[in-house]
Specification:
The protein is of the alpha+beta class. The chain has two helices and ten strands; from the N terminus they run H-E-E-E-H-E-E-E-E-E-E-E. It is elongated.
């Protein structure tokens, strides 16, 4: 085995420090809800969005959503497709493959119920205080050919407030 030398040792030290820093950062943000959870694929695909604008009382069991960083500052922002409110773009329609999404406007926010291929993504009827926009995350639109998501591991859901901050 050859000696590393001072340059090799410096590179390994820097890589180790960077890894330690990223590990600590990830650990401190593990329960913030800022990143949509990865889900396991199932056998029953479905693709429907059912937005609702009716006002109704907010669910008592759902905690209020806390505002976080701007969606545009997140690493997943490039694959976030707005699906509520408003008309869907072609990419948003493709990203919705496998999702069933119901959004209900409340007096102080929105209630979101989302499933993907029959699996619940958020708590049933989760209330987002100050919620204004719903995005579906799809890291690979190419896997959604034929309106069926073949690999949902890069898919998820994000809700933002009127200022574009991610809500958890």
């Amino acid at each position: 085995m050859s000696a590393l030398g001072p340059k090799g040792l410096a590179v390994l030290s820097i890589a180790g420090i960077a890894g330690l820093f990223l590990g600590i950062l990830g650990w401190t943000q593990r329960d913030t809800g800022m990143v949509a959870p990865l889900i396991t694929p199932s056998a029953t695909p479905s693709a429907a969005a059912t937005p609702s604008a009716a006002a109704s009382p907010s669910p008592a069991a759902s905690p209020s959503a806390a505002a976080g960083p701007a969606l545009t500052s997140q690493p997943y922002a490039s694959y976030a497709y707005q699906v509520w409110p408003g008309p869907l773009t072609a990419d948003a329609k493709l990203a919705m493959s496998g999702f069933v999404l119901t959004v209900t406007r409340q007096a102080t926010g929105i209630t979101v119920n989302a499933t993907q291929d029959g699996q619940q993504l958020t708590a049933a009827s989760h209330f987002y205080s100050g919620g204004a926009t719903v995005y579906v995350l799809d890291a690979n639109l190419a896997d959604d050919a034929g309106r069926v998501a073949h690999d949902e591991t890069g898919d998820g859901l994000v809700v933002t407030n009127a200022r574009g901050q991610v809500l958890s």
